[in-house]
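INTERNAL AUDIT FORM
Audit reference: QA-55
Scope: verify that the stored structure record matches its stored sequence.
Auditor: D.O.
Record contents follow.
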Amino acid sequence: MRLLSWNIHKGIGGRDRRYALGRIIDVIEAENPDLACLQEVDRGVRRSRFDDQPRLLAGYFRSHSVFQANVTVAGGTYGNLVLSRWPVASRHRISLRQRSRKSRGAQLLLVETPEGPLHLVNVHLGLAEAERHWQMQRMLGHMLFRSADPHPALVVGDFNDWRDTLAAGLLGANGFRQVTTPPSRFRSFPAWLPLGALDKAFIRGRITVRQARVVRTTLTKVASDHLPLVVDFHLEQRPEPRASAASS
């Protein structure tokens, strides 16, 4: 199974500042993910020609779609979007807004993959380190997040965590293992000259990662200000219960 996580920057190129949702579509299509976790997706905003990007992307890829509007912009919104090849059994939204800071959010989905249920979490965290730690503590302790504890979990998104402090801190303490390590191999921002490994993935439970990589192509360097992250993985099968010995 393949997952793609990407801050698409509303479809606006990081260097040329040109809106071209077609470039985003071409990158996603080339990677052919089963699950796409996107951040900074516009709906009804002037800068992106008032496009309903969640509808356009879901329609193009003929996928199940879950959108979380986080920020209001001049009558429109932008936020997180998950596209899934498989049905979504449940979906929840957690606000990660801290006081007067910019609104952020986490999407919590239970996806019915061919290998079993997957607890998929798509996040976009804040710019300040203290804010990010508050956001992660809120999310991990939330009853909606805890309710999916029996299932294998995959948390991905734009963490804005330049110093990589969440991996050994809150996430590590809650049993999550970082997939995107060492950070030097996963630099994704800015796309044209990547210095920071901001786009990350963490797993917990019965998940085996076959490969994780940042997509560095001529197109990904101009389509957004972040590079996409791709994770190939499988859900491990539960061992069959041992049959009890027949009574003599």
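Auditor finding: record pair retrieved intact. The mean pLDDT is 95.
Action required: none
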